[in-house]
Structures are given as structure tokens and as C-alpha cells.
Amino acid sequence: MTLTLEQKIGQLLFVGIPGKTVDDETRRMFETVQPGGVVLFARNIESGGQVAELTSQLRSMSQIALLVSIDQEGGRVDRLKNMFFPTPSAEMQRVAMDAAMSYRQGELTAEILRLLGLNMNFAPVLDVRYHPDADNGLQDRYFGSNAAKVIRLAGAYLEGLQNNGIVGCGKHFPGLGDVSVDAHAELPVVKRTRDQLWAEDIAPYRDLFSKLNARLNVVMISHAHYEAFDTTRIPGSLSHNVVTKLLRDEMEFKGLTITDDMEMGAILNSMDFGEACVMAVEAGEDMLAVCQKTERIYQAHEALVRAMRNGRFSERRISRSLNHIASIKSIASSPQHYSEMALSRLSEKMNDLTTLLKTDEAHRRIPSQG
Is 352 one of the annotated active-site residues of the chain? Predict the structure, then answer.
């Protein structure tokens, strides 16, 4: 189908919605913006049947195939925990150091998400664990304290996800492990050298870009400033040096790039929101996550349409992102038919995995007696 300029720009937005049902506000936003993706949060989730109905309605309102995602990492980032048994954290997988268990968690997560009508997961976290006690929003979300462990476990998890029909998304490029503040509140600054970043933080991305069975096709760019790449205090998500020169040109990444939530404090507390959205596209981002307030979705959309008309980026530049988005949509699986019994069965299997990991963790933490 032929898209209008407004619809093309709408495809660049990965949005949040306010509630557990499609209300008039959400319906109007879809009609006006036609977003390329929707991400669900705990505020959108009550029960399996309700989520399946919600995702079905969202897809029916979209004139173009829709990416429907969630942050279902496990542990502290478990959007489904009020619906059934908690999902294991990456920290539990890190302690177990068993790639088969990581694969199993990815596999079960994918089966659950497809049953609920989703086709993408904003996971795994590929950050390296340098400061386990830092108040940076990443506690228990690390798969490893070095690149090799992250590659092994996060790679297995990603393979489990994608072999079972859910597109994974590696985050937070080029690495958030060495920060002491949370980007939800303020802009973190990463002082690691380029060589340090390349050898450790970026290594999981380099490896997973080349995997046959677990190729990473979607990358989320962090809202942290990287002194190694920019002298001005700019988030990596808005940096041409990070998104285009490093990721696209040097690393030859051909997949889809997404910003972290543009409504985080790292953005809102340091610059104008509309201008930040334009800068993200100028930097080379394909999609912008705008997850909290509907009025900011309109703000982002209007700022990008205006910037396009004013010549800040070209039709060719937008077409490149639309091609990346279409490519991911073409590999996203269709949802499975919802069944309460199937969801209950999967929930029990995930609980069995959690119990197994907890037992393994306890054994590893108890000093040997002999």
C-alpha cells in the first residue's frame, strides 16, 4: 500500500498505551499516527484472556502489520508477574551458568508471548556486570560479568526466543554496565575508552550479529553519554557517531535500531522532547520508543513530520528505516490461538524452571563442607 507522509512517520514510533483495553484515546491515536509498534507494560496487563483480546484489537486497528512487544526479561523486569508465577532473572541464569536453562527460559517465554498475541520481546540485556551494587536500574538483569558469559547465556536465551517465533532485541547498545545512575532519572556518563568498550561491552553484539541460529536483528540504543564517541554531552541514542558510524558503518549492522524510551529522565531532563526525537532520526535510529503519555506520541509525530517537511532529513532516509521495519515485520510470527489451559501449562513449566534455578543457586552459594 502507498503510505502518506504522516503514516510513514507513524511507522517510526513504538508506542505505549494507557490501559488494559482499547479506549477512545488509543483508538484516536491509532487513527492519527498509525504507529509501527506497541509495547505493553504492567498497566496493560490483567489476565491472559484480556491481553490476548487487547493485542488482537491493536492489530485490527493497524492498517499495516504491527510489532507488539513487551519487556519480559524476568526478575525485576517481569511485566507478567501479576498474571502467573514469576519468571527467573538473568542473575539466576548467571549463577547457574547453564546455557540449556537459558535456552529453555527463552523458549518458554516465546511460547507464552505468542499465546498472548505478541511477536517481539525487548530482551535480552547484553550489558556486562561491572558494578553489581550500583543503583543504575540494572540489578539482577545481567547475564554475565564478562563478555564471554553474556554471549553464552544471553545468546542461548535469544536462540530460545527466536526459534519459537518471538523476535529478540539486544540492549542497551553500546553498553550500560559501567554506569552508576539510572537513565530513567538522569543521563548516565560512560567513561570507558573505545578499546575497553570494543573488547567487552560491544563484544556480545559483534558475536550475536554473526550467529546463524541466534542472529540479533534488533538493537536498542541506550540513553547514556559515551565520552569515547562524543565530546558533547549527548546520549548514544541521539548520536550519529554511535548509531550510524559505529553500529551501521563500522559494525555493518543491517537490522532494526530502536531508542530506549524517549520519556526517560535522561532525555526529558536535559533537552526539548520534540528536538530529541528529530535528533534520534538524524542520528540514524529506525524507531523511537515513546511509552508513557499519549500526548508525547503526538508531539513526537508532529515534530518528525515538521522536520521532514523542513528538509532536516530526506524521503530516502525515512525509506531506509521503513525497509528495516518491514524486514523485521516479515519475520515476526503470527499469534497462536489463546487457550487458558495452554497458558496455565506454560506457567507451571516456567515455575519448574525457576525452582530448578533457585535450587542450583542455593547449592552454588553454600560453601563446600569437605
Answer: no
What are the domain boundaries of the chain?
Answer: 5-364
Cell triple for residue 111? 511460547
In degrees, to the nearest 5, what angle opens at C-alpha 82 toward C-alphas 79 and 85?
95
Please tell me which residue in 98, 184, 240, 360 is annotated as part of the active site: 184
User: How far is Cα 178 from Cα 300, in angstroms, rounded to an integer?
Assistant: 30
Closest CA to 21 of 61, 67, 60, 55: 55
pLDDT tens per residue, range 258-286: 999 999 999 999 899 999 999 999 999 99
Rg (CA), the chain: 20
Say whether 78 sits in a helix, a strand or coil. Answer: strand
Global pTM?
0.95
Label the pairing between strands 225-226 and 189-190: parallel
Distance CA 205, CA 34 (A): 31
Closest CA to 7 of 41, 31, 33: 33
Continuous H helices in 212-332: 240, 265-268, 273-283, 294-309, 315-331
> Residues 78, 178, 260, 286: which is the catalytic one?
260
**The domain at 5-364 falls in which architecture?**
Alpha-Beta Barrel (3.20)
Q: Give the angle 165-355-105 at the CA atoms, nearest 5°.
A: 15
Look up 184 and say whether it is catalytic: yes
Cell numbers at residue 347, please? 506457567
Evaluate whether 119 touches 67 at the Cβ level (below 8 Å). yes
Per residue in 24-62, pLDDT (tens digit) is: 999 999 999 999 999 999 999 999 999 999 999 999 999
Q: What is the largest CA-CA distance in the chain?
A: 74
pLDDT digits (tens, 9 = 90+) for 316-370: 999 999 999 999 999 999 999 999 999 999 999 999 999 999 886 655 654 433 2
The strand pairing partners of 225, in sequence order, are 189, 235
